[in-house]
Amino acid sequence: MKQQADIVRVVGEYVQLKKAGQNFRGLCPFHSEKTPSFNVHPTRQIYHCFGCGKGGDVFSFVMEMEKCEFPDAIRMVAEKCGIAIPRPKERSPEERKENQQRAALVEMHREAQTFFVRQLTGTLEGKAARAYLEDRGLDKSAVDRFGIGYAPSGGDALLRFLKQKYPEKLLVESGLISRDQGGSARTFDRFRRRITFPIANESGKIVAFGCRALGDDQPKYLNSPETPIYSKSNLLYHLDRAKEALRRSDFAVLVEGYMDAIAVARAGISNVVASCGTSLAEPQIKLLGRFTRRVIVNYDPDTAGQTATERSISLLLEQDFEVRVLALPGQADPDKFIRDQGPEAYVQLLKVAPPYVDYLIGRARRMDLTTGEGKRQAVNFLLPYVQKIPNRILRSEWATRIAQQLRLDEPVLRAALSKAAAERRSEVKIQPELVGRAAKPVERRLIRMLAEGQGFRQELARKLQQNQLFQGLETEKILAALMLASLSGDPLQPSEVAAALEDRDRRLFFEILFEDSGELTWEEAESCLEALHHRRAEKELAEVQRSIEANPSGPDLRTLLERKQQLMRRLAAAR
Length: 575
Ligand SMILES: [Zn+2]
Fold this sequence. Notes:
By secondary structure, the chain is of the alpha+beta class. The protein is built from 25 helices and 15 strands. The protein has helices spanning about 5-10, 60-65, 70-80, 95-120, 125-135, 140-145, 155-165, 170-175, 240-250, 260-265, 280-290, 305-320, 335-340, 345-350, 355-365, 370-385, 390-405, 410-425, 440-450, 455-465, 475-485, 495-500, 505-515, 520-550, 555-575; strands at about 20, 25, 40, 45-50, 55, 150, 175-180, 185-190, 195-200, 205-215, 220-225, 250-255, 270-275, 295, 320-325. A 5-stranded antiparallel β-sheet has the order 1-2-3-4-5, sandwiched between helices. Strands 6-9-10-11 form a 4-stranded antiparallel β-sheet, with helices on one face. Strands 13-12-14-15 form a 4-stranded parallel β-sheet, sandwiched between helices. The longest helix is centred in the N-terminal third of the chain and has 30 residues, at about 95-120. The two termini are about 50 Å apart. Bound molecules: zinc ion.
């Protein structure tokens, strides 16, 4: 299983990796950084971050990223790599029950999807819905492509369809069926007389529905509630279909709703995702960050949309995204704009979407800049964003630009900026005690040779064991674990050795494995062993000397002096 799993491929789904020598490198997903210190080793099948020290094998990576347990990680890795594995055993009866429930809910959504599609295509009521969709520019190909369906007006059509197979409790938990909060406790369809849009999770499984009223029913949009399989803030609409395009184009278009995402995708921009709601949540940004760190925000131009845009800019900047903003002319949302102006016009505007600071300056210019109070407001509006620009020179350029554009007194603005900059929370520095220790070169080489010394690993391990040469060394525990693994003569599994180590030692071990090794020879191994002998003799000599000085007239003096002579001769011979 582990041999078949490809760590580069799996990690590559989360982190943009670039080849760097024999390794792959990228921005660490576990800490915030601007220069990549996260490394993946294809042959050793391990990863290691030189910044924060996280490291391990493909399973520990998935466990960390997905915040899941080992059995789930195995299953996910197997899925990603197309490896068949026997169904894992659940850990507890509760877990088993939860898994069964989730599986049943996913299956229920699949059936509901079939039901909604059939309602759209095969019923009289559905015909009216189709006419409405045509009117919105959604023809049959679009309906098929995005799985659009229809929830009929009856009130219990879906309920009757699902009731045969699922208990009422589960139906209510799915969010597809509602229960009357009054005395009757009657159950009924949550979605009635609505166009249905299936919402799939990252792996393409339908976990919720977004529904638009066909007539003037309120609310206009009604979505599934949070359920065991659906959490709004952890999902981006269309991501399951956008993955490839996101990686290829290395940018995402972020829109508000599924209608917008569908319109943009149909305009040929497959790398579009929707936050499904006005506020973008941090988990969604992290999710997107696994595919790209460049975003063009294209929210609705209304007040709510503007507020959402500004909030999104802040959140995206905090996560080190490069942000541009597309504000469509004529107060249009993407869906409407593309319908009115055509996809080419949209693509053109997307190409010239300005960096977020330009967008914000535009917003500030609409404030009343004739009064001192108005100017103060405009500066206060812009400052928090400018502060977030990590690069000092860029920050300074923007200050000049803002001053010019808003006709502000530049020195005053600069003073405000530098004050703000001083208060700016600096990038989280890594605490020195967490940084790997600098082990002595001899020990580093021995670790390397025990891990990879072709043909002499076993012999080296034996020699180290015979003389207990590793004892008392800084890397004692690493060497001991490696010796144990090498004595068998089997190929080394770095992650198995790492599993036996404490965090500090594991970090050092991985660091050493990622160093360029050069040729490993038995001659070098012997000289390393010799160096350890020498070091041990020096240490003993120092102890002997201390004993002599501590008790110059003691009964052991003669023995001690003899030993001292011996050690000194040995050390002299080695030079
Ligand atoms: Zn890191």
